[in-house]
Design goal:
This protein is of the alpha+beta class. It is 56% helix and 13% strand. A hairpin with a 2-residue loop joins strand 5 and strand 6.
Length: 137
């Protein structure tokens, strides 16, 4: 069990991929699977932050980065980048804030966390299905 969800057969799929492809090709396949998951997450986040859309900059600045290898593990960042620095406002909308002793709970309170918790199983399933298809090639 990993992070609250279980996907059976992942070890077998990875083992078959390692036997079938070179390490370089396997790295490309893993990166593509991560990219697919990140793209899915990006569009789900865009949909989630629509609830507090004003000018649309927060929605436009949602980005999915490129898969990077750090300490031997591939990862990809999904978040906000752009000239309007919307990541600052997203933080306030996600957690609320206190000003002059009064606590504010904006309309978008917790939408990013809800979106993430709702999509993480689907992201993993999408990635595993892609990897399984690559085994069947």
């Amino acid at each position: 069990m990993n992070g609250g969800f279980t996907i059976t057969g992942v070890d077998e799929v990875i083992s078959k991929l390692e036997n079938k492809f070179s390490s370089r090709k396997l790295d490309q396949i893993e990166r593509q699977a991560l990219k697919m998951g990140a793209t899915y997450a990006k569009y789900q986040l865009k949909y989630a932050v629509e609830s507090y859309r004003d000018t649309g900059a927060t929605v436009r600045e949602v980005t999915a980065g490129k898969p990077r290898k750090k300490a031997g593990h591939l990862s990809v960042k999904v978040g906000w980048e752009g000239g309007k620095s919307r990541w600052r406002l997203v933080h306030l909308n996600e957690w609320g804030y206190t000003r002059n002793g009064r606590t504010y709970s904006p309309r978008g309170l917790g939408v990013v966390e809800k979106a993430f918790s709702g999509m993480k199983d689907e992201i993993k399933n999408t990635q595993v299905e892609y990897l399984k298809r690559m085994v069947d090639l």
